[in-house]
Amino acid sequence: MKAYFVFAFIFCLCFHAMAQNNSIELEVIQHKTEKLIHDTTKGILNQTTINRDNLVAVSQIGQDNVLQPVIGSNGYVLSYTQQGNNNLIDIVAKGEQIKHNIAQYGDQNLLESYNLSSGQQSLQVIQMGNRQEVLIFGENSMSKDMKISIQGNDKQLLIRNFN
After folding, report:
1. Does residue 40 carry a pLDDT above 90?
2. What own/partner pairs with CB < 8 Å and gap ≥ 24 does 30-37 have?
3. Starting from the edge strand earliest in sequence, which strands make up the sheet with 66-72, in order?
4. pTM given for the model
5. How far apart are CA 109 and CA 162, in angstroms?
6. Who contacts 86 (Cβ-Cβ below 8 Å, separation ≥6)?
7. So which residues are the signal peptide here (predicted)?
8. How many CA atoms lie within 13 A of 70 on its CB side?
9. What is the C-alpha separation between 163 and 151, in angstroms, rounded?
């Protein structure tokens, strides 16, 4: 019986020493990982210039929502929200300053906008409902800074602008 207690005591001492050794190794690995993440982040931030005139915010909740913006501009502020399923935003825009605030709430909504004018552009569209289509081609003085809000189901809006 005495030999059993001595054996158990030696086993516990060895196990305790191994556990302390492993915890020290884990602390070293954790410290090195944190240092690597900090140094990498610091290097990326030092190499990146942030232009406050160019902002993009995208929120998509649901399934099969698609956002396809093609923007050619030196300054833009873009906000796109899609809540629902099977929504599509397809935009081609080229200009000095571009501002978009577009929201789709519902299912199977479509927004297509093609605007290659050289000046400032502002587009605000809110679609609330299902199976709505908004098609916009170009921009002129009558449609500049136009705000579009559509509610209900199975609606279509087609805007063709000519200079």
Report:
1. no
2. none
3. 66-72, 88-94, 110-115, 133-137, 156-160
4. 0.66
5. 25
6. 63, 64, 65, 107, 108
7. 1-19
8. 7
9. 29
